[in-house]
Each structure stands twice: as C-alpha cells, then as structure tokens.
Amino acid sequence: MVWNYQAALITLGITALSAQAATTNYTSTVDPTKITIPDIEQTKSHDPAAQCKYYQPPFTVNPKDWPTSWEIATSNGMNSSAEFTALYNSIDWTKAPNIQPKGMTAAGGLNLQSYDTVNDPDCWWSASQCTKPKKADINPDIVQCLEPNTWGLTYDDGPNCSHNAFYDYLEQNNQKASMFYIGSNVMGWPYGAMRGLKDGHHLAGHTWSHKLMTTLTNQEVLAELYYTTKAIKFVTGVTPLHWRPAQGDLDDRVRWIATQLNLTAILWNLDTDDWAANVVAGVTPETVQQNYKNFIQMGSNGTFNTVGNIVLSHEINNMTMDFAMQNYPEIKKNYKHVVDVATCMNMTNPYVEKSITYPTFEQQVNQNASTATGSGVSPAASGSSSMGTQTTVNGALFIAALFGVAASLF
Ligand SMILES: *[C@@H]1O[C@H](CO)[C@@H](O)[C@H](O)[C@H]1NC(C)=O
Ligand SMILES: *[C@@H]1O[C@H](CO)[C@@H](O)[C@H](O)[C@H]1NC(C)=O
Ligand SMILES: *[C@@H]1O[C@H](CO)[C@@H](O)[C@H](O)[C@H]1NC(C)=O
Ligand SMILES: *[C@@H]1O[C@H](CO)[C@@H](O)[C@H](O)[C@H]1NC(C)=O
Ligand SMILES: *[C@@H]1O[C@H](CO)[C@@H](O)[C@H](O)[C@H]1NC(C)=O
Ligand SMILES: *[C@@H]1O[C@H](CO)[C@@H](O)[C@H](O)[C@H]1NC(C)=O
Ligand SMILES: *[C@@H]1O[C@H](CO)[C@@H](O)[C@H](O)[C@H]1NC(C)=O
Ligand SMILES: *[C@@H]1O[C@H](CO)[C@@H](O)[C@H](O)[C@H]1NC(C)=O
Ligand SMILES: [Zn+2]
C-alpha cells in the first residue's frame, strides 16, 4: 500500500492562515494495521549477540533517499533533495520567529552565558524550562499527564537490536509506553520500531541524529524532524504527530518549525537521569535508584493528587532497561495509573493515519479496572514473547547498520 499525504494547499500569495501549511509526502509500503515480524533469532532471542546479528529488513532502502546515519539530517545532500526542497519551499519562513541558532561552548555544551535567562525571550527550555511558547502560532509542549495519580511512561533513544527482553516485559504486563525513536536507529533496526507499533506503544520522533536542536540552522532543524518522521512512516506505516528534542533543547524557533510539520513536543516533569549513571561524574546507579524511589513515593504521598507526571527514562542500554523493569512493580503499586502519554491525554489519534487508534484514558482505565492498582509481573518472570511468526517479504540485500556507526550503509 502506498500512502501519500498532501496538506491542504494554500495558494502562494494568500496569507497562510493555518500553521499546518507545510507539504509533506511520506510514502510507505507498510500497512500499520498488518505489521508482520518474522520469527527469527533477532526478533526473539534475549541474548544480545543473537539479537544484534545482521538482518535483512523487509524493504528496499535506497541510500540516496536518506541522510547519513547519526549525522545531521542535511547530510548526504538531503537539503537539496527534491522532496526536501519542496517541503522547505512550502513553508512561509517570513513567519518564523526571528531567533538565531544558539551557540555551543568549547566543551560541546550549550552556551547559556550570552542569553537573557531572566526575560527568556525565546522560551528556551534549556535556559528556563519554559514550555509555553511566547510567539504566536506555535504548539505548546506537553509536560505532564493531566490525569491525577498517573505516571506517564516514556522511553527515549530506541529502537535498538538488543531490546527483546524489555519489550517482552512490557508486553507481559500489558503495559504501553510512549517511545521516542531516533531516526537513525529506526533505519538501523526496523524490526525494533515495527514491534513498538505492533505492541501498541505510542511512537514519536526523537530527531535523526540526536543533536542539540537550538544550535542547528532552520534547514537542519527541519531535516532532523522531517527525516525522522519519514523513517518511522517508512518502517511502520504511521506518521507521528509528537516528538521530543534531545536533552529537551528547544526554543520558539525550533517549536515553530516543528509546528509546520504538525509536530508537538512532549517533554517531562520528572527526570530519572538513568542514562547518566556511571557516565556523568557524580551520578551513580544509586543516584538513579534514589530518583526512582522519590518519584515512586510521590505517587502515594499526595504530590500528584490533582495532576499526573511524565517521567523521562531511556531504553538505551541494559542498565537503563533494568532500572525500568526493577522499579516497575513499585510504580504500579504507588500510582493509580501507569500509561503512555497518548492515552493519558486522550489523544486517540497520535498519527496522521487514522487507521491506528489509542484508547481514551477512560477506556484504558475501565478495561483494566480490576488490576489498575495491582503490582506488575516481576522482571525475573520475563521470558517469552507472543509475537507473531509470519514471514515478511524479501527486500534487496541490506545490511543493517548495527550500533548506529556504519553510516554509509544506508
Ligand atoms: C495536522 O494534524 C491535523 C490534526 O490531526 C490534521 O488535520 C492536519 O491535516 C495535519 N497537517 C499536516 C501537515 O500533517
Ligand atoms: C545544504 O547545506 C550545506 C551545508 O550546510 C550548504 O552549504 C548548502 O548551501 C545547502 N544547500 C542548499 C540547497 O540549501
Ligand atoms: C512525492 O512523492 C512522489 C513519489 O515518490 C514524487 O514523485 C514527488 O516528487 C514527491 N513530491 C514532493 C512534493 O515531495
Ligand atoms: C512526597 O515525596 C517526595 C519524594 O520523596 C518529597 O520530595 C515530597 O516532599 C513528598 N511530599 C509530601 C507532601 O510529603
Ligand atoms: C544499543 O544497545 C546496545 C546494547 O544495549 C548499547 O550498548 C548501545 O549503546 C545502543 N545503541 C544506541 C545507538 O542506542
Ligand atoms: C541485562 O543483562 C543481564 C545480564 O546479562 C540480563 O540478565 C538482563 O536480562 C538484561 N536486561 C535486559 C533488559 O535485557
Ligand atoms: C479524557 O476524557 C475523559 C472522558 O471524556 C475526561 O473525563 C477527562 O477529563 C479527559 N482527560 C484529559 C486529560 O483530557
Ligand atoms: C487490561 O485490558 C486488556 C484489554 O482488555 C487485557 O488484555 C489485559 O489483561 C488488562 N491488563 C491487566 C494488567 O490486567
Ligand atoms: Zn535522547
């Protein structure tokens, strides 16, 4: 099935009344309601080596259609491709907020020194944690579930080849999460992304190359968002309407560009710092475990009696997934509800395609009324998967870019 979308065209010269004036043209051979994943070691095994063996994905990838893996998405000539040029020209850039890309320090961090943090004219999250745009016609960020006593479950940085145990665990607990996928990873490990959708998780983009978005040019920001959405569409058949910037780094310029693509940012109000254990000086596994403990306690001490949270956590590696699994039973015990963000916000259509829908919060809660406050299956019990066993169609021989470094392969 080839799917083709064009936004309602607003004739050039007439004032663009809508913020959704951009022309996008994603195509996919995948029907999101009929995803099939082959019964092979890579999709079944819990042994990291077996899971990460090269596999041939079920589509033909033309390397000319994609940016270089893990490089800024304008790479490989993508900023002059016909599709990107058409998209870029469909946007009325005279309406973009007049904000310059932010600078970086020699150490590679954001340069906050020259910014007026007190007045925060750009609503720059990294400087002020601002999430309500100060400029017009920009989608505001979603930062917490509005339902009381609700844990908004989110995992960043997937998909990956070695995450079968984690997805099996979520499946066993009938637990859905919002998954923020990196475009380069989606192309590298398509079965991971296909499983994410098939399992009922809420898929959203997390940029192509995971750069600090406010430091990029308009073209680069657009390409990072566009090619990630295109990758998710290509592999799973759905076009996400949500995204999350790496390290939460966004301002009104980046938000405005995302809004042209109909994307709304989902941030968080609690950060486990799980990725940082043994990576950032001073952050240990105990630090992260204490964060989890505090956030869990907030579920039963009244902190979230009127609104819920959204918790930032990662699927990146074994350590972050183990934190998630070890803490899950206590999260379930201390919160009334643990749901993905689409569900907690009643966003039943989080994709452009309406063929895939998510339950409303009420539907989800009623379905699971008897077990809503119960505990989860313990991580140790995780083992089998009930994934389908169909075989997918053959594509041209394509060696998956494992570990995201074999850039030239696609
Ligand atoms: C943006 O989303 C709205 C609501 O789902 C939809 O009606 C509109 O067509 C979308 N526009 C684009 C450019 O995707
Ligand atoms: C594409 O990006 C490169 C590097 O940023 C730039 O030199 C070039 O002018 C851009 N091409 C177009 C068509 O904008
Ligand atoms: C849309 O996709 C078709 C088929 O791939 C292509 O021929 C066409 O140029 C694209 N249009 C735009 C605006 O990207
Ligand atoms: C709830 O627990 C959190 C984390 O331990 C703590 O910071 C907060 O002060 C507690 N709130 C109340 C009302 O006890
Ligand atoms: C993929 O997973 C492996 C093993 O868990 C991890 O070492 C690696 O960093 C992950 N790669 C990416 C790009 O997240
Ligand atoms: C992490 O590695 C340990 C030891 O190999 C294994 O027992 C555990 O299941 C792994 N966790 C995940 C989430 O894969
Ligand atoms: C979700 O929908 C239910 C039922 O209509 C409503 O009671 C609830 O307030 C909604 N929650 C949110 C966050 O929109
Ligand atoms: C929640 O509802 C679904 C769908 O009805 C059901 O399959 C599942 O077993 C329930 N979850 C739990 C944890 O009981
Ligand atoms: Zn990330």
From TrEMBL:
<feature type="domain" description="NodB homology">
    <location>
        <begin position="149"/>
        <end position="344"/>
    </location>
</feature>
<keyword id="KW-0732">Signal</keyword>
<dbReference type="Pfam" id="PF01522">
    <property type="entry name" value="Polysacc_deac_1"/>
</dbReference>
<dbReference type="GO" id="GO:0000272">
    <property type="term" value="P:polysaccharide catabolic process"/>
</dbReference>
<keyword id="KW-0378">Hydrolase</keyword>
<keyword id="KW-0449">Lipoprotein</keyword>
<keyword id="KW-0146">Chitin degradation</keyword>
<dbReference type="GO" id="GO:0098552">
    <property type="term" value="C:side of membrane"/>
</dbReference>
<dbReference type="InterPro" id="IPR011330">
    <property type="entry name" value="Glyco_hydro/deAcase_b/a-brl"/>
</dbReference>
<keyword id="KW-0479">Metal-binding</keyword>
<dbReference type="GO" id="GO:0005886">
    <property type="term" value="C:plasma membrane"/>
</dbReference>
<dbReference type="GO" id="GO:0046872">
    <property type="term" value="F:metal ion binding"/>
</dbReference>
<keyword id="KW-0134">Cell wall</keyword>
<keyword id="KW-1003">Cell membrane</keyword>
<comment type="similarity">
    <text>Belongs to the polysaccharide deacetylase family.</text>
</comment>
<keyword id="KW-0170">Cobalt</keyword>
<dbReference type="GO" id="GO:0006032">
    <property type="term" value="P:chitin catabolic process"/>
</dbReference>
<keyword id="KW-0119">Carbohydrate metabolism</keyword>
<dbReference type="GO" id="GO:0009272">
    <property type="term" value="P:fungal-type cell wall biogenesis"/>
</dbReference>
<keyword id="KW-0624">Polysaccharide degradation</keyword>
<dbReference type="InterPro" id="IPR050248">
    <property type="entry name" value="Polysacc_deacetylase_ArnD"/>
</dbReference>
<dbReference type="InterPro" id="IPR002509">
    <property type="entry name" value="NODB_dom"/>
</dbReference>
<protein>
    <recommendedName>
        <fullName>chitin deacetylase</fullName>
        <ecNumber>3.5.1.41</ecNumber>
    </recommendedName>
</protein>
<feature type="signal peptide">
    <location>
        <begin position="1"/>
        <end position="21"/>
    </location>
</feature>
<keyword id="KW-0336">GPI-anchor</keyword>
<keyword id="KW-0472">Membrane</keyword>
<keyword id="KW-0964">Secreted</keyword>
<dbReference type="GO" id="GO:0004099">
    <property type="term" value="F:chitin deacetylase activity"/>
</dbReference>
<keyword id="KW-0961">Cell wall biogenesis/degradation</keyword>
<keyword id="KW-0325">Glycoprotein</keyword>
<dbReference type="GO" id="GO:0071555">
    <property type="term" value="P:cell wall organization"/>
</dbReference>
